[in-house]
Specification:
Layout: E1 4-7, E2 10-13, E3 18-20, E4 23-25, E5 28-31, E6 34-36, E7 39-41, E8 45-47, E9 52-54, E10 57-59, E11 62-64, E12 67-69, E13 72-74, E14 77-80, E15 85-87, E16 90-92, E17 94-97, E18 102-104, E19 107-109, H1 132-140
Parallel strand pairs: 2-5, 3-6, 4-7, 5-8, 6-9, 7-10, 8-11, 9-12, 10-13, 11-14, 12-15, 13-16, 14-17, 15-18, 16-19
Antiparallel strand pairs: 1-2
Length: 141
């Protein structure tokens, strides 16, 4: 059956464990088995090399070395190890990606943690910008 070991405020889902459903933790959690469902942890999370997660993850910080099919939202940092395979969108204040990662999705990295800044508008022609013809004629002299 399923086994969850708690030591020092960190829960561990072993490699031989399969969980279907929602997992919530007020501390940190390490997943080395299979999880088919959402994971939310107020602390940090580790998705080990042998882990396969199908569902969204909401954590403080996370290190991913296994496979995640779902969106990852971290309050602070997402670290993708070289063996990581992530199919889903990621959002965090900080992001670290090692060489070799497979990532298919969108990323939003915003150190300020506030709303993403709007794109700067392109300068209009009446704001003193010169045309390409003007620039070329200056260089021909």
């Amino acid at each position: 059956m399923s086994e969850e070991v708690t030591s020092g405020g960190k829960s561990v889902i072993s490699q031989d464990v399969e969980i279907t459903g929602q997992v919530r933790s007020s501390g940190s959690i390490e997943v080395n088995g299979k999880l088919d469902g959402e994971l939310s942890a107020q602390g940090d999370a580790i998705v080990g090399k042998t882990a396969v997660v199908k569902g969204n993850l909401t954590v403080n910080s996370i290190s991913v070395a296994g496979t995640v099919t779902g969106n990852i939202t971290a309050k602070d940092r997402i670290e993708l190890k070289s063996s990581a395979k992530v199919m889903g969108d990621i959002k965090a204040k900080r992001l670290a990606v090692e060489d070799g990662v497979t990532f298919v999705g969108k990323s939003e990295v915003n150190p300020s943690g506030g709303p993403a800044p709007a794109a700067a508008p392109a300068p209009s022609s009446d704001e003193g910008s010169s045309s390409a013809d003007d620039k070329q004629s200056r260089f021909k002299k």
